[in-house]
Every structure is written in C-alpha cells, then in structure tokens.
Amino acid sequence: MTELQTYGIAIIGALIAGGINTLAGNGSAITLTILTEILGLPPNVANGTNRIGVFTQCAATSWVFHKNGKLNITRNKKYIVPIFIGAIAGGLLAINVSNEQFKAVFKFMMVFMLIAVLVKPKRWLRETDLEFRPKWYIYIPLLFALGFYGGFIQMGMGVFFLIIMVLGMRLNIIESNALKGFVIGLYTLLLIGLFHYQGMIDWKLGGIMALGQTAGGYLTARFASKNKKADQIAYYVLITVLVFAIIKLFLR
C-alpha cells in the first residue's frame, strides 16, 4: 500500500468517525485504531495526536449548532466547569500513565451503556426539561468524573456524555450533542498544549486525520440541525455504535 493510499484510508475513516462523534460518540475508536494499526503510532502518541482532529471537529460542529440555534451555552454553563476541570486532571494523568490497562474493562462499560440506552427509549426522544434542576452535589462530582474520563482517554467519551446529559440532566439528545462538541472542544484545546509539551503529538498525521474528522463533523451537524427526525436518527446511531463496539471488543 502506497503512502497516498494509506493517507486516503485515514481521511475516509476520520470522516466517518467525525460523523459518528457528532451524532453519538466513540468515533475515537476508529481514529485511534487508524493511528496505531495503520499509521503506526505508539498508543500514548496516538492518544495525543487524536486530539487535533477532535478539536477541529468540535469547533466545526459547535459553530454549525450555534448558528442553527441548537447550542445554548448560557443555559448549560453550570455543566461546563466541572467537566473542564475534570478533563484537565485526566489529561495530566494520561501524559504519565498508559491507558492500555483500562481497555480491559472498557468492553463491560460499553455493555452497561447499551442497556442504559435501550431502557425506556422515550427518554431519548423528549425535549429538554426546562423545569428540571439537578442537585449540585450530584451533578458536580458526576460531571467532574465524566471530564476526567474524557481527558484521560477520549474513546467513548461522547456516549458517556449523552447518557449523563440526556438521562441525568434531562436535555434533548441534539442539544446534548451540541453541548458535547463545545465542551470537548474547549478542554481538548488545552490538552493539545499539554500533549505537545510532552512530545506526544504527531502534527502531520494529526492534521491529515483532522481533515476528515472536521468534514464529517461539519456535514453531520448541518444535517442534525435541520432534519426534523434528527433526534430519532441520533438515537439509532447511538445504539448501532454501541452494538458494533461491543461486538468488536468481545470478539478480538
């Protein structure tokens, strides 16, 4: 396989991952696999390099969702701070500790997430509950832990985010996806600086992957912002992502 063909596969895979990340999550399972298995990066460098495409994709989707009235930062700002702080703590740990051991239990977490998504599906198709006020002593530690996970290993972060925001904070799934992109993009920008400082980013390969991820995220966000059935589509994409991820994790 030529270098051009390798990069072509990487961009196409990243484009698909960008679309999956925008509507559901776990697209990093694709990009991390490409970075390690096809492009040959060590796992810790792949973890850092992957953040470039995550940031550019999140920036593109946030702009589209904001432009189309799906991103409400003011109403959800109380959720952003604990996630951001947790992500920085997780990123600092990721710089010094390998996340390979964590992957041993990741597949069981994915099964739990699939069960949470399938139980009472109507909860995933409702509008944002504007009257709901979660207790601070519940959502602050919960979202800190969520951010910590995202900072430590990005893979699966989007799915966890949707479960907590839709089921726990009672946000609409599309609004949750819009907020997800903004928050992840926010802390990822800082994490890129941390990973770069430690020499754990390949900017050339990260830039190539970012082309696909950004395009995939942008196009999917436009679709999700304007399609009346976007809630249902996002829900079914989420189920599909989880099922395929579980099959892959248990069969390998």
Automatic annotation (TrEMBL):
<dbReference type="Pfam" id="PF01925">
    <property type="entry name" value="TauE"/>
</dbReference>
<protein>
    <recommendedName>
        <fullName>Probable membrane transporter protein</fullName>
    </recommendedName>
</protein>
<keyword id="KW-0472">Membrane</keyword>
<feature type="transmembrane region" description="Helical">
    <location>
        <begin position="136"/>
        <end position="167"/>
    </location>
</feature>
<feature type="transmembrane region" description="Helical">
    <location>
        <begin position="179"/>
        <end position="197"/>
    </location>
</feature>
<dbReference type="GO" id="GO:0005886">
    <property type="term" value="C:plasma membrane"/>
</dbReference>
<feature type="transmembrane region" description="Helical">
    <location>
        <begin position="104"/>
        <end position="121"/>
    </location>
</feature>
<comment type="similarity">
    <text>Belongs to the 4-toluene sulfonate uptake permease (TSUP) (TC 2.A.102) family.</text>
</comment>
<feature type="transmembrane region" description="Helical">
    <location>
        <begin position="7"/>
        <end position="35"/>
    </location>
</feature>
<feature type="transmembrane region" description="Helical">
    <location>
        <begin position="79"/>
        <end position="97"/>
    </location>
</feature>
<dbReference type="InterPro" id="IPR002781">
    <property type="entry name" value="TM_pro_TauE-like"/>
</dbReference>
<keyword id="KW-1003">Cell membrane</keyword>
<dbReference type="InterPro" id="IPR052017">
    <property type="entry name" value="TSUP"/>
</dbReference>
<feature type="transmembrane region" description="Helical">
    <location>
        <begin position="233"/>
        <end position="251"/>
    </location>
</feature>
<keyword id="KW-0813">Transport</keyword>
<keyword id="KW-0812">Transmembrane</keyword>
<keyword id="KW-1133">Transmembrane helix</keyword>
